[in-house]
Design brief:
The complex is a heterodimer of chains A (81) and B (479). Chain A is built from four helices and no strands. In chain B, strand 1 and strand 2 form a beta hairpin. In chain B, the strands form six sheets. An eight-stranded mixed beta sheet of chain B has the order 6-7-5-3-4-8-9-20. A five-stranded mixed beta sheet of chain B has the order 12-13-14-15-16, sandwiched between helices. Classes of the chains: A mainly alpha (81), B alpha/beta (479).
Chain lengths: 81, 479
Amino acid sequence: MDNSQQLKEAFSKSLELDIKDITDDLAYSVNKQWDSIRHMNLVAEIEDLFDIMMDTEDIIDMSSFAKTKEILGKYDVKFDT
Amino acid sequence: MFWQLDNIVESDPVIYDDTEQRKFTYGELKKLGCSFSKSVESLQKQLAFVYCENSFRCILAYLSLLRAGHAVFLTDSEIDPVLGKKLLQTYRPDFIWHPHSKEDGFPEFEKISLEYENHIFYRKKRNERSPIHPDLAILLSTSGTTGSPKLVRLSYQNIQSNAQSIVSYLKIAKEEKAITTLPLHYSFGLSILHSYLAAGAQIICTKKSVVEKGFWPLFKEQSCTSLSGVPYTYQILKRLRFHRMNLPSLKNMTQAGGRLDPEDIQYFLEIAQSKNIQFFVMYGQTEAAPRISYVPDNRLQEKIGSIGIPVPNGTMKLVQQGIEIFGSDKEGELVFQGANVMMGYAQEKADLSKGDEQNGILHTGDLAIRDKDSFYWITGRLKRIIKIYGLRINLDEIEQMLESKLGKPVACLGKDDILSIVIESNETQTAQQALQHVIELYHLHRSVLYAYCDSTLPFTPSGKKNYQEIQSRIVNGLL
């Protein structure tokens, strides 16, 4: 499974959303499911998944699915699309 | 009374609203408040629902209604629709304030426009003559999710007295600025507003959460001096590597709303000590408006895990079968006495006419011990009861039943119509057996039950099952 798919699954699991709802424009607080509690679950999930420790600024900056992929690039997690 | 804004300096700032990007002075709040109050004045005391958001206009609406002498129920603007409807039907308010204009939301109400930024109240077209007790100031829900219309009745004296106690032990000076990290309809969030107003200090209103972009820049820009949170807020702050954040204006931090792990308290205490921040661990219940006790910040190091000492103007004692227990390290039910103890509960509208039923005494339902320094420590709940489909379920009873049937240690936890069972076992079929027993004996639906196996159940240093740890294992998907 590629990183993009793995990240989608992490989002789906942490935010309790259907995998088909995980699109690039999925954004924090726009989708009511993505609240502060689930946000931190998501951070934990992503950190475990890619074995990284994210910076505070990045955790706060992770405001959409697209933005998350961009931020993860800094931690050498690559996405094809 | 703090909501009258009598002893204020008109030119002092009171609120900075992040959404409106505007600063308001005490003078402006008072002037607008007086004009709003006139629009909602009536001969008879009436009931208002305020659907809260963290904003100047919401605080303005709330204070205006208090000043007009009405009783105010503060609730969530994003309340579950089913529960929201039930509350409206049960309490039938005469006034409604809602942050979002609702065209068809409240059909039996007419709009009253006010002279500020398209501000409106909804007033019932035909009001009913249902008496409300003259002492009743506010109504709060103890839990927003249980679907129960049960509310806590708090008097003017309750909120005033608790606000003063908080100002006195936190030593809130008028230069201080608190940022809204909690909702106003939650008793802890509301007590921050009350105490800061009582101190003539400032509130920075924001709808952003601590994990949202913009929160920390705002915190710095406005030089906030205080940060408050529930255990979950602190767990988030820790994950955000709070020790690396540079917040020079921060002078004090308060934590309440549940037990914070000793390890987390230690983490924040160390940061507080190194950065010269005061860190207060506190305990309360909505029924006490809400503050009951606190750990003086200079004693926290030696009292990690304690709920501290009673707030000024309050006393605490331990009671076992109706008899007060003296001496240290003996367990009993924690009983609080003070002017901030609620008038009582309300289950229906007629209850709003009731007077004080508590006489300043609150049986907290928590078990505690008192140490030799007269600090209190919570040891458990008197009864661990949850409600599933309105049925009262005693968790300890189910636990004992399963332990005897399965011959293994079992922990039962409950939350919001869900019963979780954790069995100390490595065989997954034990979980199935446990479910069968509970379904047979209690006729509960399979969908509200969750059963897990854990190779070793965690225990607290005092040898009790560590429900908090078990809960976090469940939440984190470790079982």
